[in-house]
Write a structure and sequence with these properties.
Number of strands: 23
Radius of gyration: 28 Å
Helix content: 40-55%
Shape: globular
Largest sheet: 9 strands, mixed
């Protein structure tokens, strides 16, 4: 209770400060030391005191300060370890604040790789920029940020705003980034690494700058496919010109999330740097559109608090769907809505927290928020919806908003629309309006066909055969055809053979993948057709087909290994790891070759690779009962990783291994050889009670 009272008091204090003190601009001269993981900075804030206060606070986590001056005069200050507290030297009206600081950020700024693979990047939302830059955790304090960053000249440094100029001296370089409009501190960002870039102007003339690592230049087009089309579509659909001077996108390794909408500078996961084959499995299009939409919904107009977070995530999710509709068509759009409706229906059975609650789930904020907007748009019409959104953005640009602010704009353009009932039904009630959703989905013919096909589950395959043939030969969107394959998955092969051959002839990647997945027992007569799946433009299909063929035709395993020898797969190297795994179990290779394959697999568990590669390799090696010291050491090293999903996997895996006496003894033996941080983590796990 005391902790809750303290948090409420802190929130009240900062809310009061935001009302009484307005920080206008900040200029930060910073340098970053990757060896010590240290940030040094010299800061100048301009702020206006509207009403005098005893203390003005700037959020600053575990930083040290020197040369603190207000209006060019040295002042006394206190440092709580969480805030820089100022209590003298300021006056009502305009003031300046300067100081130097030093920080060793334990979160928010991340250092990955070494030497030529070094990357440094930030993630402010949910982590707080105040861990590396003295700023404001309160989203309602918006400031114009200008960063001057000094770093090793052989790297590229990217930050918010327009790159005004650079200055090179000896081995270092200084990048001068300039912003013209204010934003919340969580949107401040830096990305440093070995990047090249390409600039394409949007239809309206905004420079679209796309970054990529030199090793990935062949993946540039599929990675950024449709980017310009999406940007141009948003400016037209939203009706408000992109609010900033430039838009940049930067992929970084082991990013915490899919992407982050830092103002003018989206940072996204290296997982989405893909070739044309991987594009068919998992592409960047939706994340691309989602983060771009945030430049309006979240960056230009920011929710006042977590209770209204759907105004950012719901909007970004919905506009990303609208962009995908523009790119992929109506059927794709309605299928995505349908899929999310099923998720929301199922989630509402156990999730009783509504959208308008700061503790709502991501599913609620994102997908239910998007559905709520779709309901409004369908209820009042696309033109009225666009008019309301345009008015909302223009009225509240560079400001903070709540749900009622948006609904008031809806009410202006559509007085007949019951915003109170909408708010109660869609935002304050945890139930999902499935009947309403289905009625909206049925406006699309494909969805009606899909629903009708699902009803065929009540009949036998023989009764449905002619209908199935008709649908497989039609131009229906692929989910109709995969639904058929799902329905016949347990049917005797001779009864479904003709349908499977028709499915393969569609040449649709998703339909053919469903054949690969649902046909477990492959008759010899179907072998040749099934083997064509190994050539499909999908890494997922190749993997499924390889494993099924390996199981069904042991005498041809050497043929399949030869086929897969040069496969790599996506960024997680799934197909290369697949090949190495099965090669180790094969008798076709010499002892020297097998040793080489094992060494390669073990290397993939090392810190030289992204967590997705490492985890794939760990899973594989433990599945074939490899237990060498280097494997266990790399697993312990993974417990120190910044990505929580990966550290959870590694800790949980160690716990399960410690249940075995042999593994426990082996971990105890390597303990003394580990670096301090890893040693501490392993010791804590060893000390846990079984």
């Amino acid at each position: 209770m005391r902790i809750l009272s303290f948090l409420l008091l802190s929130a009240f204090t900062f809310a009061q400060q935001t009302q009484n003190v307005d920080f206008k601009t900040v200029k930060g001269n910073i340098s970053i030391n990757p060896t010590e993981k240290k940030v040094l900075g010299s800061i100048k804030y301009i702020f206006e005191v509207r009403k005098m206060m005893d203390t003005i606070k700037i959020d600053a986590q575990k930083m040290s300060f020197t040369s603190v001056k207000i209006n060019n005069k040295q002042v006394k200050f206190t440092n709580s370890g969480k805030t820089l507290n100022l209590f003298e030297g300021f006056k009502k009206g305009k003031n300046s604040l300067t100081f130097d600081y030093e920080a060793f950020p334990k979160q928010t700024m991340y250092f990955t790789g070494v030497e030529n693979n070094l990357q440094i990047w930030t993630q402010g939302q949910g982590k707080y920029t105040s861990h590396w830059f003295p700023s404001f955790d309160d989203v309602n304090e918006k400031v114009i940020f200008n960063l001057n960053i000094t770093f090793d000249k052989k790297y590229n440094v990217i930050a918010n705003g327009f790159l005004k100029t650079t200055y090179t001296s000896s081995n270092s370089k200084k990048w001068y980034y300039e912003m013209k409009q204010p934003m919340s501190s969580y949107l401040l960002a830096i990305a440093i690494g070995d990047f090249v870039n390409k600039v394409t102007p949007s239809k309206s003339g905004i420079p679209l700058q796309f970054f990529i690592q030199p090793k990935d230049t062949a993946k540039f087009e599929p990675t950024y496919r449709y980017s310009k089309q999406i940007f141009d579509y948003f400016e037209k659909e939203i009706g408000v010109k992109y609010p900033w001077k430039i838009y940049k996108q930067v992929p970084v390794e082991d990013f915490l999330y899919a992407g982050m909408e830092n103002t003018t500078t989206t940072i996204f996961a290296q997982d989405f740097v893909i070739d044309s084959t991987a594009f068919n499995d998992r592409n960047y299009v939706n994340v691309n559109a989602h983060e771009l939409a945030h430049q309006w919904f979240g960056d230009l107009v920011t929710a006042k608090s977590g209770k209204h977070h759907w105004l950012q995530e719901g909007f970004a999710t919905y506009y990303a769907l609208l962009a995908e509709r523009e790119v992929f068509g109506d059927d794709y759009f309605y299928h995505q809505l349908y899929r999310s409706s099923l998720q929301l229906r199922n989630a509402s059975k156990t999730d009783t927290i509504p959208v308008m609650n700061e503790k709502a789930s991501s599913l609620s904020f994102y997908q239910k928020g998007a559905w709520a907007l779709h309901f409004i748009r369908e209820s009042i019409g696309a033109k009225s919806f666009q008019k309301a959104v345009k008015s909302y953005l223009k009225k509240y640009k560079f400001r903070n908003v709540d749900t009622d602010d948006f609904l008031a704009e809806i009410k202006k353009v559509a007085p007949f629309f019951d915003t109170d009932n909408f708010k109660k039904t869609w935002l304050e009630d945890y139930h999902f309006q499935m009947e309403v959703a289905n009625s909206l989905l049925k406006k699309n013919q494909f969805i009606n066909t899909l629903f009708e096909t699902q009803q065929l589950r009540k009949k036998s395959v023989a009764e449905n055969n002619s209908k199935f043939i008709e649908l497989l030969q039609s131009d229906s969107f692929y989910p109709v055809k995969t639904e058929i394959l799902y329905q016949i998955r347990d049917t005797p092969f001779e009864e479904k053979e003709s349908l499977l051959r028709l499915a393969l002839k569609t040449n649709d990647v998703k339909v053919r993948q469903a054949v690969a997945e649902f046909v477990k027992d492959i008759p010899v007569d179907f072998k040749a057709e099934y083997e064509t799946l190994l050539n499909d433009s999908s890494y997922e299909t190749k993997e499924i087909a390889f494993m099924n063929l390996w199981k069904n035709f042991p005498n041809d395993r050497s043929v399949y290994l030869a086929k897969a020898k040069n496969w790599v797969g996506g960024n997680d190297k799934s197909l290369r790891i697949l090949y190495l795994t099965f090669a180790l179990e094969s008798s076709d290779f010499s002892e020297e070759e097998q040793t080489s394959y094992l060494d390669e697999l073990l290397n993939y568990t090392s810190p030289n690779f992204e967590s997705s590669v490492r985890q794939n390799a760990f899973v594989t090696l433990f599945s074939i009962n490899i237990s060498v010291d280097i494997l266990l050491k790399n697993l312990v090293n993974a417990t120190t990783h910044h990505k929580w999903q990966f550290t959870k996997y590694s800790r949980d895996k160690i716990r399960s291994l410690l249940m075995t006496d042999d593994y426990r003894r082996q971990f105890e033996q390597i303990l003394i050889t580990l670096p301090d941080g890893e040693k501490t983590n392993l010791q804590n796990l060893l000390n846990e009670k079984p």
